[in-house]
Design a protein that fits this description.
4 helices, globular, alpha+beta
Length: 109
C-alpha cells in the first residue's frame, strides 16, 4: 500500500521518490514481519541503512511514509531520522495501518 501512496503523492506534487532500504532481510509473510517488528522495538534496534539521500539540501518539503506497526514506526525509520538533520524542513508523514492511524508517531518525528 505504501508504494502506491508514495507514487500518488509524487505524481500529484511532481516530487522525487526515495526508497529507504536496510541491510535486514525482513520476512515476506505479513504476520512474521509484524512479529519481527515487535522484536526490533523491544531491543530498540537501529537497522543499518543501505540507501542514502545525497542531496537533502535540495528539498524543503519531505513526505515520509511508513507502516504503523505495534503503534509505532518501523525501527528503520528511527535509523533514517537519526542519520539526517531535518531542521528547517517541512516533514509531511503518511502511513498505512490497521486502525491505529498515526498513534504517537507524529510526536516522535
Amino acid at each position: 500500500m505504501l508504494p502506491q501512496l508514495a507514487n500518488m503523492i509524487a505524481e500529484e506534487t511532481g516530487g522525487d521518490l526515495f526508497s529507504i532500504q536496510t541491510s535486514v532481510d525482513y520476512p515476506a509473510d505479513i504476520n512474521d514481519v509484524i512479529d519481527y517488528a515487535a522484536e526490533e522495538q523491544d531491543t530498540n534496534a537501529r537497522p543499518e541503512l543501505t540507501t542514502h539521500i545525497e542531496n537533502l539540501e535540495d528539498y524543503d518539503t519531505i513526505f515520509v511514509g511508513y507502516p504503523n506497526w505495534w503503534y509505532d514506526m518501523p525501527m528503520v525509520m528511527y535509523s533514517f531520522f537519526d542519520e539526517y538533520d531535518f531542521s528547517r524542513k517541512t516533514i509531511i508523514p503518511f502511513n498505512s495501518h490497521n486502525g491505529s492511524r498515526f498513534s504517537d508517531t507524529i510526536n516522535t518525528i
